[in-house]
Each structure stands twice: as structure tokens, then as C-alpha cells.
Design goal:
Layout: E1 12-17, E2 23-30, E3 35-40, E4 61-66, H1 85-98, E5 104-109, H2 111-122, E6 127-133, H3 140-147, H4 151-154, H5 156-164, H6 174-182, H7 187-202, H8 211-218, H9 220-235, E7 258-263, H10 271-280, E8 285-289, H11 299-317
Parallel strand pairs: 3-4, 3-5, 5-6, 6-7, 7-8
Antiparallel strand pairs: 1-2, 2-4
Helix pairs in contact: 1-2, 5-7, 6-9, 7-8, 7-9
Length: 318
């Protein structure tokens, strides 16, 4: 099993103004002369953490990580205005151009896989390879599974806490009920909803529940951005015109080297979606990790991802 590379500090960081109101934080780690790769975090609204820098051999890769609009160190915090999938796709291309990069590899898990694919299909010539994990395509059945009924059957104890924030008469549509509270004027209501929403995800992300993960998802700052931004994207169906848009456009990227890594016991983004993607994209390598849930920190998933950052570094160097 391969584990994360050692802790590392950025050699460069900054802000890029991407709209009248939004400034996006980015950082670069590794080798300034190395192969460029962009890290696309999850949520939406999750932000980057120092651990995400460590999937990449720092001698081979120049890694660019950034906080998507409204989260992490990006400003304004938890802002939902001018915050859509297509805004983020443009931000990625703007960061690439700002850093004078011609093309780069794209690494993303969960919502990061959704955004990586949306970006790749918009700017295929910008992409050297794709490393995708815990596939999420934001379709109705995926949202329904996690936020309405399905995952609730596996984690009924955790579900109860998520459910109880919403009065019985509104429980036929949890996403709308949460949206109302997360965007409402009452700060207490907003934070209560934000914590319950975030901790539901924190308590279901790993094969074995980890109290530290659950607590960190429940921290005020993190929960507010994560819950508000996620719910805003899901309430708006990811701003896709057609929920099958990504699956129906794989031909745009099919010849770009790619790998899909998926935990068998992923309860947040069940393997069914990765399987459908694999069927539409047989050219991409496909790995189901037999003893893993959703998180990138699952040992089998971390190991497979690093195997591929090494493999693609060699492939792209020749
Ligand atoms: N959202 C799944 C997702 O993208 C439905 C996600 N879940 N947790 C995360 O992202 C973080 C690890 C970024 C907090």
C-alpha cells in the first residue's frame, strides 16, 4: 500500500479576481518545472486542505490547488451569487491562463469529479489526463439517494439527526426544506441546518466512521460554506440543462488518458454512477476498491490514486 507523500508547503500562492465580486485563492506546490496538475476539491463548498497536496510526487508534479467560489480562503465567504458550475469551469481555465500553463492534468473526487468532467468537456484541449474518484454526476437519483431516501437505510442513526432539523410536513423534499433554512435570515436556524447537513455527510463518508471527520464537518466555518454551497448547487440541479449532459458527451474527452477510482462501499456516491461512466467510457482505466467508502483518505483509494499519479507522470513525460 502506498501512503501520502510528506507534508509540503506551497512555493507560490495568491488570489485571482474571477468576477466583480469573487476572488479565488490558489496555491502551487511541488516542482515549479514539473508537470502541471490541478486539484479540484469536493462539495461543492469543501475547500482545499493541506492533505490534498500529498497525492503527488513533489519532484515530478507542479500541483495547483484552489478554493472554489465562496469557500476555503476564497472571498466573499459562503456567497451564492455568481456561483454556478459554469462559473467554476471558467475559473479553472482562468487560473490556468493566469499561471501561463498550456495544458494540465485534472484530479478530482466526488463533486470534484463532476466539475473535472464539466471542465474537460468544455476545454478538452486543456486536459492532459484525468484522475477521478468517487464519481458523482449530480443526477436526480443520486441526490435522492443521499438526501431523501436510500443512504438513510444504511445510517438510520445519523439520518435521524439530519431528518429532525426539518418539520414533518416538509420532509417530502429535504433539499428544498434545507435550502429555505440555509438561505434564511435567522443565523441560528442557518447554523443548525448547516451543521446537520454537513455532519450527515461527514458521518457517512468513510467505511469506518471517524469522530474527527464528523467533528470537522460540523465546525461552524466549514459547515456554513459547505452546506450552503452544496444545497444551492443541488437545489439548482447543478445548473445542468440535461442531467445526462456529462454521460452523453464523453466522446469529447474519450482519448485523453484517464482513471476512475471508486470505493465499493461508497454511500455518498454509490458505485452505480462510476459504473455507468465506465460503460460510456471504456477507454478509461477503472478500479473498484473492495474495502473502501467515499473518502479520498480511505487507504485503498489513496494508494490507487498515488499509483496513478506516478503512472501518468511517467506517461506524460515520454
Ligand atoms: N458531495 C460529495 C462531495 O463532493 C455530495 C464531498 N463530500 N465531502 C467532501 O466533498 C469534502 C471532503 C470536500 C468535504
Amino acid at each position: 500500500m502506498t501512503t501520502l507523500f510528506p507534508e509540503i508547503e506551497p512555493f507560490n500562492h495568491g488570489y485571482l479576481q474571477v468576477s466583480d465580486i469573487h476572488n479565488v485563492y490558489y496555491e502551487e506546490v511541488g516542482n515549479p518545472e514539473g508537470l502541471p496538475i490541478v486539484f479540484i476539491h469536493g462539495g461543492p463548498g469543501g475547500g482545499v486542505t493541506p492533505e490534498y497536496r500529498r497525492f503527488f510526487n513533489p519532484e515530478k508534479w507542479r500541483v495547483i490547488l484552489f478554493d472554489q467560489r465562496g469557500c476555503g480562503k476564497s472571498t466573499p465567504f459562503a456567497e451564492l451569487k455568481e456561483n454556478t458550475t459554469w462559473d467554476l469551469v471558467e475559473d479553472i481555465e482562468k487560473i490556468k491562463n493566469h499561471l501561463d500553463i498550456k495544458s494540465w492534468s485534472v484530479f478530482g473526487g466526488s463533486w470534484g469529479s463532476t466539475l473535472a468532467l464539466a471542465y474537460g468537456q468544455t476545454y478538452p484541449k486543456s486536459c492532459d489526463s484525468f484522475l477521478l474518484r468517487g464519481i458523482f454526476l449530480l443526477r436526480e437519483k443520486e441526490l435522492r439517494w443521499f438526501y431523501q431516501e436510500g443512504a438513510s437505510f444504511i445510517f438510520p442513526d445519523e439520518w435521524e439527526k439530519y431528518k429532525n432539523v426539518i418539520p414533518t410536513q416538509e420532509r417530502n423534499d429535504f433539499i428544498s426544506a434545507y435550502y429555505k433554512r440555509l438561505t434564511g435570515p435567522d443565523k441560528n436556524e442557518r447554523m443548525k441546518a448547516a451543521k446537520a447537513w454537513s455532519q450527515w455527510e461527514g458521518s457517512t463518508s468513510k467505511l469506518t466512521q471517524d469522530p474527527n471527520t464528523i467533528n470537522s464537518y460540523g465546525e461552524d466555518q466549514f459547515a456554513e460554506a459547505f452546506a450552503r454551497i452544496e444545497c444551492h448547487y443541488f437545489y439548482n440541479k447543478g445548473f445542468f440543462k440535461d442531467e445526462n449532459q456529462i454521460l452523453n458527451n464523453i466522446q469529447l474527452i474519450k482519448d485523453i488518458p484517464a482513471v476512475i477510482v471508486q470505493g465499493r462501499y461508497d454511500v455518498v456516491c454509490p458505485v452505480e454512477t462510476a459504473w455507468e461512466l465506465h460503460k460510456k467510457w471504456p477507454e478509461a482505466d477503472f478500479h473498484i476498491i473492495s474495502d473502501a467508502g467515499h473518502s479520498a483518505q480511505e487507504p485503498g483509494i489513496t494508494s490507487k490514486l498515488i499509483e496513478y499519479t506516478e503512472k501518468f507522470a511517467a506517461l506524460l513525460t515520454n
